[in-house]
Structures are given as C-alpha cells and as structure tokens.
Design brief:
By secondary structure, this protein is an alpha/beta fold. Helices cover 26% and strands 21% of the residues. The strands form seven sheets. Strands 1, 4, 5, 6, 7, 8, 9, 10 and 11 form a nine-stranded mixed beta sheet that branches. A hairpin with a 5-residue loop joins strand 13 and strand 14. The protein is globular, with a radius of gyration of 24 Å. Mean pLDDT is 96; it is low at 455-461.
Length: 612
C-alpha cells in the first residue's frame, strides 16, 4: 500500500477532510505513488512529460499532446448528474440515482491506478478572496500527468487553496481515472465510460477518458454542473456557460461589462476575444475576462449583478482560429506562453503545429507532418487524402495571463458589474442583428428559447432550431423549471438590472448564401448600441420580439455592408417569427413547473406578433 500520509505531510497538506478523501480513493484505485502538485511544479512536470513522450515540443515554450483516437471530445450521452432525490431529474441533466452510480463507478475504478502515480491537484475555481470562494475549492485526483498540466493552466492550483477554508470539509471531491482507452467500448452498448457529478454530495467521478472536457474536473464538471447545482441549492448565484468581456469608451471614461451564452459554433470565443474594428480602436478598448464560464451574483453593497470567470485559462477550439477570426487567441499561444496544443497536426521534424483554418491552405512541404492520429501525411492512402489533418475538436490551452487584452481587474475577487446579458445562436434568418429587452422575464424567456440551426427542410422555410437553453443544455444539473425560477430570483433581486439582448451574426442571403453582416471585430457595434440603449442615449424601434436599432443609431463607419443587407438585418420577418413561436411553445412544454412569468412572456410575444 502506498504511503499516503508521508506524501501529504511532505506537501504540507494538513486539511483532515482532504487527507481522509485522498486516503480512501488511494485504497480504491491502488496507485503505486502519490504526488501532491501545485502550479510551481509545472516546469518539472513538463520536463518529465517530455522525457516520457507524453507531450512533444511545439516550439519555444510550447507543447503538443495527442489523445487516443477514441478519446477526442466530451461525451454528453455518458455524462450523468446523480443525486439522492428523484425530484432533481430534468429533461437535459441525464439524472440517475446516486445509490446506483456511486458503487458502479467505484467498481470500475477499483485497482485501475496500479503501476501509476495518483496526482493530487488542489485547486480554486475563483479569484482568491471571492465572495463565492466557499463553492470554488476542489481537489482532483488523476492518474494522468497531462491532465495535471492542463489543470495548472485552467485553474489556480496549490495546497493553500484547501488549507485555509472556512469550512475545511467544503471542497469538491473529484476522482478521474483514465481506464484502458482501447477497450472501453466507446459508442457501443457495452460502453464503460461514465462521467458522473454526484451533485448533492459535491463529488465528481469520471472514468474512461483523458480528454479535457471529461478529465479536467475543475472546468465543466465543477465550474458548470456542480456550481450550477450549488448556486441553486444555496440560492446565492448562477453558474453559466457564458463569455465575459469589458468595453471602455476612452472618450467618456465609461466602462461596460457584457456576458452571455452562445451554443456551440456560434462565435462565443471569437466575441470574447474581440478587438475593436479598424478606425475605432482610438476610442474604444475591449478587454477579455473569459470565454466559457461566468458565475453571477447580486452584490449586497450596491445591489448590482456581478460576474466572475472562475477559470484561470482558456481551453479553446483550434479549428478556424487565425489572424482574421481571432488575432487575440493567436497571440495567446505564442512562443514562451507554455500553451499546450491537443490533436492538431504536428511536424515531428520542425515541431510546428497546424490546423484547418490556421492558414488558407495546408503546408505544401509535407516532410515530417503527422495528422492528429499520429499518421504521416506522406503515407496517406488516396481514400484518406482529403481527410482533415487536425481533429475538428482540436484545442489550445493557455493561461488568462497570456491573453494580450486581458482585463487589468480580471482577478478582482468581487468580480465586475454586469451591464448586459446577451444570447446568440447561429441562425440564417428570422433573427435580426440585435434585439433587446428591458423586462427580466422576457430576457430569461429568450435565454430559455435560445437555439442554433441544426437541420434544413428540403425546400422553402428553414427547419427548426436545436434549442439550447442559456447555452446550458449539456451542462444542466437540476430541472429546467426550477432553473428558470432561480434565474428570475437572482436577477430579480438586483436593484439595477442588466439589459438583455439576443444577437445574431449569421443571417445569410437566401439567394447566394453570403453572410449579411461582416462579423468578427464589427460585432462591437451592436454591443455599443446595446449599452447606449441601457443608458437611455438611444431609443431603438419597438417590435413584437424586442427593441432593434435604427440605422442611424449604429456606428457604421467603415462597415462593408450594402444598404439592402443592412435593412434586412434590422427588420423582423413577422411570418417567420409566428412559425417560430409554435416551435418555442413545443420546446417549453417539455419542462414541468416553468414559472408563470415565462409563459406570460411567451404569450405577450405571441400576441404582439399576431397583432403585428
């Protein structure tokens, strides 16, 4: 039996509840060694991982990691929320009884760390001193060194975070065991993978993966699922898959903070890392706070909604990231940043990395290039010649401090006051550039009916959206009715309410399918209008589905858009919206116990469209 006590003593880890937890799971998983790590161990762990071939050099101070080919993404169908209370079952949380899941996971994990090191990773998912710190501490046990390296970049890692807890037992207990990736039956009826959050016990048990979203337990499992449950049960905060940015008007000195949710492939990271358009940088400065998670609470001193990014890094999708789409991200992974690239293409001779969209075309000199599976590009068969070099879900991991426009106050424990909450899906019609709501219930209603296009009819009208409430569909941890009620409670308790809005950068011409709005940096313009609307500096135009800007209210200098396209994205297609309302009603009918305020908002919009 490994000497757990000696290693915990050596590391100065004295919290008796952490020691008990580590000792118990060491007995279950039976590692040969125990190692407590902190952020200061990063350089040594990098050297060890390089020597072991677990990662490869990708330039000066840059690293490359390759997953098992069967282990390259989150697995929503294997992700479960477990509690002792069947009333916690929702439509999307994939609820199972904890009495069933806990022994199942313990059985799968038994003896699985033999011959390995158990890394003990104490971490904090909030700036130290945050009012939400009581819900932010955790300890992840993992058998994979590359997971430790990623956690060091994505969280604040160190023993001190669990030694000074007001309640020494109040930390999230996370156990990650990789398992035999070749023989887990991924995607078959015999699939042995389980990614379980035992929410009412604040315990996370993940078996059968070493991919980021399944293995970095501080990120999604704690930062979203567990935190959302904690926020609901405590009544104190919301935990959402939201980006968070700041906009400063250097001419007036005013600063605004905007957070919001976007389903997958709807431009969330690019928006979070946005820079001002050419010609507007002299007046406006955009700051990055986070691209993936925000925790929101009411501050008792001024009654405003405050937001923090609980993460300490960025786990971004590499595909299509380049100097045009996201120059901030490109600058966040420059040599010397310690960034880790996962499942992109790699040149074993030059140590370069490449992914689809990094440059207009793939490298023409193929010597040394291997694809994300590790196969040489030069040895590809004719049948495989057109396959991507990088996995579509390839990633880069870098710390917040590496982001060139990171906000000066990103580590403010209090967070920043939220002026606007926005939602945005990828929608080729029906959604104008921006529409705003000053009513809380209508804003929450809009978030609950957020969606992105998934399918298209053979002809005529495009198909239904795939609804993704608040962009939390994969991360829900309690029922949708109480979720909506919790939103109304938290936002409704503020003395100064953020303005809500829905944005859409993706309207297309029905004829030639070009995007009507140029997007990227120009997305600052509708956000500036939204802030001006909140301040009463513009009035917009009231429609059945919200307030939209007039052409004169938008700052449009230098925008490459035709008058016809501009008119389209500032117009409501009433007939299309009437159809949309029938889809929305069917979507909402899935959720028992939705608050009356949500149905009343739906009925108000429906009536306004009927009267239009």
């Amino acid at each position: 039996m490994v000497d757990v006590e000696s290693e915990l003593d050596r590391a100065g880890l004295n919290n008796p509840h952490v020691r008990e937890y580590v000792t118990y799971w060491a007995g279950v998983t039976q590692p040969d060694r125990i190692e407590v790590v902190s952020a200061s161990d990063d350089a040594r762990l990098i050297d060890e991982a390089l020597a072991a071939g677990e990662i490869l050099p990708a330039g000066d101070g840059l690293y490359y990691s390759r997953s098992h080919p069967k282990d390259t993404a989150r697995s929503e169908e294997r992700t479960i929320v477990a509690t002792a209370d069947p009333a916690d079952k929702g439509v999307y949380d994939n609820w199972r009884p904890s009495s069933e899941m806990k022994p199942l996971l313990e059985g799968l994990m038994k003896g699985q760390s033999q011959g390995k090191t158990m890394y003990v990773v104490p971490y904090l998912m909030a700036p130290p001193g945050s009012p939400l710190e009581a819900w932010a501490a955790g300890v992840e046990l993992t058998d994979t060194r590359s997971v430790v390296l990623q956690m060091i970049r994505m969280a604040r890692v160190g023993v001190a975070h669990v030694e000074s807890l007001a309640d020494p037992s109040s930390f999230v207990r996370g156990v990650h065991v990789t398992g035999d990736l070749e023989n887990l039956g991924q995607g078959t009826p015999d699939d042995k993978r389980y990614f379980v959050t035992v929410a009412d016990e604040r315990t996370i048990l993940h078996f059968g993966s070493s991919y980021g979203g399944n293995a970095l337990l501080g990120k999604i499992a704690h930062g979203l699922r567990q935190a959302a449950y904690d926020g609901w049960k405590s009544g104190e905060f919301l935990a959402e898959q939201f980006m968070l940015l700041g906009i400063t008007d250097k001419q007036t000195g005013k600063k605004y903070h905007i957070c919001g949710g976007f389903p997958s492939a709807s431009g969330k990271t690019n928006l979070a890392m946005m820079l001002p358009p050419e010609g507007m940088g002299e007046r406006y400065h955009v700051e990055f706070y986070g691209d993936d998670i925000a925790w929101l609470r009411v501050d008792p001193e001024d009654g405003k909604i405050y937001g923090i990014n609980p993460e300490n890094g960025v786990f971004g999708v590499a595909k299509d990231t380049n100097e045009k789409t996201n120059p901030t991200a490109v600058d966040s992974v420059l040599p010397g940043t310690g960034a880790i690239f996962t499942n992109v293409a790699y040149n074993e001779k030059t140590h370069e990395v490449w992914w689809e969209g990094k440059t207009p075309a793939a490298p023409t000199e193929l010597d040394g290039w291997r694809d994300w599976k590790g196969e040489l590009i030069t040895e590809r068969s004719d049948d495989a010649a057109g396959e991507p070099w990088a996995h579509p879900n390839s990633r880069f991991t870098t710390t917040l401090a590496n982001v060139p426009n990171i906000a000066d106050d990103y580590e403010n424990p209090k967070g920043v006051p939220i002026d606007a909450i926005i939602f945005g899906g990828r929608t080729s019609d029906r959604e104008p550039l921006v529409r705003a709501f000053t009513d809380i219930a209508e804003g929450v209603y809009d978030g609950l009916t957020l969606g992105a296009e998934a399918t298209f009819a053979a002809e005529g009208v495009d198909g239904q959206l795939r609804y993704d409430p608040m962009s939390m569909r994969p991360f829900m941890s309690y029922p949708e009715g109480p979720y909506a009620a919790h939103w109304l409670k938290i936002i409704g308790a503020a003395r100064e309410t953020p303005i809500f809005a829905h944005v859409n950068w993706f309207q297309r011409s029905p004829e030639d399918k070009h995007f009507l709005w140029p997007g990227y940096r120009d997305n600052l313009r509708p956000l500036l209008w939204l802030c001006a609307l909140k301040n009463g500096e513009v009035t917009g135009r009231q429609t059945a589905v919200g307030i939209i800007p007039t052409e004169e209210e938008l700052e449009l200098g230098g925008v490459d858009i035709t008058p016809e396209d501009l008119a389209t994205i500032l117009t409501i297609d009433v007939e299309r919206w009437r159809q949309e309302m029938t889809f929305r009603e069917a979507h909402l009918r899935q959720f028992p116990n939705l608050p009356d305020e949500i149905w009343e908002a739906h009925q108000r919009v429906t009536k306004a469209l009927d009267d239009a």
